[in-house]
Every structure is written in C-alpha cells, then in structure tokens.
Amino acid sequence: MFVLRILGTFSLLMLLLALGCGDADEEGEEIGEAEIAINEVIMERWQKGYMTKDLPLYESAYWAEGFMYHSDMGTPVDATDDLIFDDLRRELESATAVFEKYQDIKIEVSEPEITLIDDVTATVRQHYRIEGFVTDGTMVEGGFVSWHAEGDSEFTFERRGTEWRIREWRDQAVPAGQLQLPL
Fold first, then answer.
1. Is 58:42 a contact under the CB 8 Å cutoff?
2. Domain 32-178 has what CATH class?
3. What pLDDT sits at residue 51?
4. Domain boundaries, the chain
5. 5-9, 29-33, 131-135, 167-171: which has the minimum mean pLDDT?
6. 150: pLDDT strictly greater than 90
7. What angle do CA 90, 121, 160 make, to 5 degrees?
C-alpha cells in the first residue's frame, strides 16, 4: 500500500512536470505559434532588415495593401507636425534615405508585448532606440556624425493566409531633448 502511494505521488509529480514543460513567457503561459511568428517578423525582418540596410528584407515585414504609418514626431500634444501616410513606398523611401546617409545603424528593442485580438489581428508594443553613424571624416547636415531616435512603437499585425506582417505602425517618439544616449 505504501509503495502504491509513493508510485502514485511520483506519477502525479511527473505528470505535473510534463505539463509545465515547453516554451513559456514571463507569466508562465505557453507561447503560441502566432506570437513566435510575430516576434520573428520584428526581429528577423523589421530590425535586422533595417540594421543591415536590406530593403527587401525590411519591406517583407509589412503588408503594402492597407499599410498606415503615424508618428507624433516627439510632440504628442501638437498634431500639426505629425507624419502620417498610407503608402508603404513612402516608408521604403525614408528607409532608403537613411541607408544612404548612415553607414552603421543600430537598433535596440524591448521585449515585445504581443496581444492577440483575434485569429488574424494582433497588437505589439515595444520600446526602441536607434542610432545611425556616418563614416569617419564625413558629416551630415548641421555637422553631425550620428543620428539618434527613441520611442514606443505600436504595431498592428495582420495574418493573411499563414503569414503575419505589420499593417499599421504608430510611433510615439521621445522628444529630442529627452533621448537617452548612447545605445
């Protein structure tokens, strides 16, 4: 009888251990396929594409159809300077200009906070810090050798078929005088 209790207790512990195994986030919940796919888009397409100046890789993080970008430009109470466009080509033109101007680009992002809205929509919040540097001996407008930006991104992801991509990007930039430098 005693041996059966020990075996029963051991079996129960093994079952609990087995149920607790697998990928887990900080709250102890399992990380789903959608969250893994979304995180991969952020890290392997959005961040990596920008840092390596790989425009096709960067572009593959977005859906062109239905794309929207909105930045408060670091002045959340002043909407007059907001940058808003609904054409992915404008984002790619902006990225190309940065890629041409800065030889070294670094982006640091916080762990993304992913919220699944339904089977095809998710929101992702994360903090970013970015800096770009020109090569030694050169300067950009104003005599600067680097550019720095920081803020909070809120992405709306959409799944089309089996693929997740960014449909909308809302950027809440940190005002220039409040940047934490360097990375």
1. no
2. alpha beta
3. 97
4. 32-178
5. 5-9
6. yes
7. 70
Kindly give the residue spans of alpha helices, DSSP state H, lying in the chain: 2-20, 33-40, 48-51, 55-59, 88-101
- Whole-model pTM? 0.78
Q: What angle do CA 4, 8, 13 make, to 5 degrees?
A: 150
What the block records as the tokens of 70 is 């909105």
- Report the distance separating Cα 88 and Cα 168, nearest Å: 10
Q: Which helix (H) or strand (E) holds 126?
A: strand 121-133
Residue 115's contacts (CB-CB under 8 Å, 6 or more residues apart) are 122, 123, 124
Question: Under 8 Å CB-to-CB from 135, ≥6 apart: which residues?
Answer: 103
pLDDT higher at 9 or 79? 79
pLDDT digits (tens, 9 = 90+) for 44-85: 999 999 999 999 999 999 999 999 999 999 988 899 999 999
Specify the amino acid at residue 151: G
Q: For the purposes of burial, counting CB atoms within 10 Å of the CB of 155, is it exposed (0-12), middle (13-18) or buried (19 or more)?
A: buried
